[in-house]
Here is the input.
Amino acid sequence: METHAKVVIIGGGVVGCSILFHLAKFGWKDVILLERSELTSGSSWHAAGMIHTISSDPNISRLQAYTINLYKELEGLSGQSVGLHSCGGIYLASTPERLDFLKKERSKARYMGLEQEFISLKEVVELNPLIDPSQYLGALYDPLDGYVDPSGVTYAYAKSAQHYGAKWYRNSPVVETRQRPDGTWDVVTPKGTVNAEMIVNAGGLWAREVGRLAGIDLPVQPMEHHYLITEEIPEIASMGKETPAGVDYEANIYYRQEHKGLLLGTYEAVATPWMVDGTPLNFGHELLPDDLDRVSDRLALAFQRMPALARAGIKSVVNGPFTFGPDGNPMIGPVPGMKNYWVAVGIMAGFCQAGGVGRSMAEWMIEGEPSIDVWSMDIARFGEFATREYGTKKSAENYERRFLLTYPNEELPAMRRQKTTSIYDRLMHRGAVMGVSFGLENALWFADSPENAHEEPTFRRSNAFDYVGEEVRAVREQVGALEIANFGKHKVSGPGAVAYLDRLLANTLPEVGRLKLSPMLTPKGKLYGDLTVARLDRDTFYIFGSGAAQEMHRRWFEKHLPDSGVSYENYSDAFHGMAIAGPNSRELLSRITRDDVSAEKLHFCDFRKTTVAGVPALLVRISFSGELGYEIYCAPQYHLKLFEKIEEAGSDLGLKLYGARALMSLRLEKSWGVWTLEYRPEFTADESGLDAFVAMGKATDFIGKDAIHRARDEGVSKKLVTMVMDAGDVDCVQDEAVFHNGECVGYVTSGGYAHYCQKSVAMAYLPIALAESDEQFQIEILGELRSARLQAEPLHDPSGSRMRG
Ligand SMILES: Cc1cc2nc3c(=O)[nH]c(=O)nc-3n(C[C@H](O)[C@H](O)[C@H](O)COP(=O)(O)OP(=O)(O)OC[C@H]3O[C@@H](n4cnc5c(N)ncnc54)[C@H](O)[C@@H]3O)c2cc1C
Here is the structure.
């Protein structure tokens, strides 16, 4: 075995082998994979092998389509059959809500260029004669679905990697991973030690154990999972062709043809986490004892839906463990806070996802960034709040909900109150309905009493609608207060801070006592941050950004730190705080601080360290509502006091608490995008409109500058727009297809109701020729095409005079 490699991948399941293949294919030959036993010794060998593109996240769907389309290439390169059956798949709906869900999925598929289509129930029966059509309301057909042979796929990746010059070693368990002072890793096996520039934990069922070798706890959890295989079913045997795979959400079953019978699996109503304290190191090519009692209710439903099944004998039952993460999506990428340590873990649909995961990991390692925005798979979407217990409970929740509907306005119950602020109880007493962001509870909206603080999950407008409207009107007409503990905060200081930030940020740095908005770009010119940069003194900066992306930003800040002269800290938990906004906010602020906060003394975009509500605070004159407003940050121990003083001082000024929903409505009226929706590494500054905050003229070669030049030479092809639509009683949320003259030309990044302007609004990226036109558009919401037109100026206060006043 080599003593040195550029990359060592730990784990020879489908995921590790795909990463090995992609690294080698993209040009890194000095990469090796170490496998404890034989390849496919974890969950990969006993998978049902079903493949599909449907996912909650469009980019994951795209990568799943990539994975499926890769199989032919792998067979060609390796000479190894992957057992590909391209039989198509049918998604069945038996409730109106599920039909809405399928319509949303098809809308998403349209702009991704995938060919999902609704088929009639008559066609369903023609494709699968076992199905009783009277049980259903509709069916969506996806021609890309099918199934593969799991071992064949894993070996096809490994052999194709070998074709490109990579190596793998069997019977080479990694027993230690030790980091050297130079940041490289010694990967120790009984056969010898390999020094690697980077390592990848692709340990699958043992991801937790491999993580612990490097001192990290990963929030993943193997879960037991059953499927069974029937004896021959005459109706299947007599068909001249293979029946499509199927998912029946309400019965909670999936199935596909296996020889002349069916393979049928289910996600049990009560999940069974497997080996909560750790996967035994000697667990081999083994299955778990089956327990059909756990799935009998689902089998009864399956017999109703496909009566012929009840007459079929069961040939075999599989109960095998596979690993889930807290939200069901993979966790990939470099681990924040560590050097040269990468993970690709928690991948619960390896045969749909491993190709996309492998490609994204390889691009990220080789080129510094993946070609597709992988935020929904990024390990950085979790932080220290995602403990082992969190991983177990959330993974179990995810397993149980795999085929259940989760509505866009729904907040899931497991592991709530993992992180709270000191005003949590106060907010609950004021009728707060809470959501979670990066583990922290934050108010979404306020009902008129705690008793009414519930929201019905729905694709349509919910009972929150009128309450949110009142909050918006309070901010526009009087004053509102919003807890902003969940914003991301970073501190950069030291004699090298100016040079460091000047290179990292696309805008010039603010003067002392001022703040500026600045995008942070990748070398390819993609957005990596949309930040508010505040300067305390010559060498000290506070940077405010997305709370959800705080660890992603931390990773970027740390990656670019020089050896000395700059110190960086993620300050998100060190500062909580409140925002106040609205025409009466200045008066409110003046009542709780001794500072002169008049328009002449505290200008728009001023920033200072001072005392507010009698507690030490950072005071920022800015507001994401588009009104006159202030953000007041303080240490968590002062947060309650600050809140109490704001409530007290605002009582005769019309003060109303508002939540994240009202904030989203307020910003839509201003045509401002938000991080993870409009602003993310899928788009550039020019496309997003953030070019207004890019200082191309500054002397420093900031990261991404060259890419902007190149893109401008080629011509910017799309642009973020705001659209106003005839929505009826349902607004856009995200990912709805936009049509022009019957052709899908883009998709909605976010939408909602602009309560003050009383319009339904959507933001979308459109081809440049259309983005600046006065054409008519249509947006597909829950299967209906609604007319929409461009809104060139912000709906509210286009000149910005209210926030600057
Ligand atoms: C019953 C069942 C049905 C499924 N059905 C489907 C399906 O229909 N479609 C689908 O896409 N997915 C399905 N899956 C999930 C799929 O099997 C997994 O997503 C996939 O196997 C994950 O692959 P992996 O490489 O991450 O992990 P694993 O397959 O667990 O591989 C990890 C590898 O790492 C090795 N390893 C661990 N520790 C070390 C160490 N210290 N040193 C060296 N090597 C080490 C292990 O030996 C193992 O070979 C199913 C799973 C089960 C159990």
Observations:
- The first helix runs from residue 14 to 25.
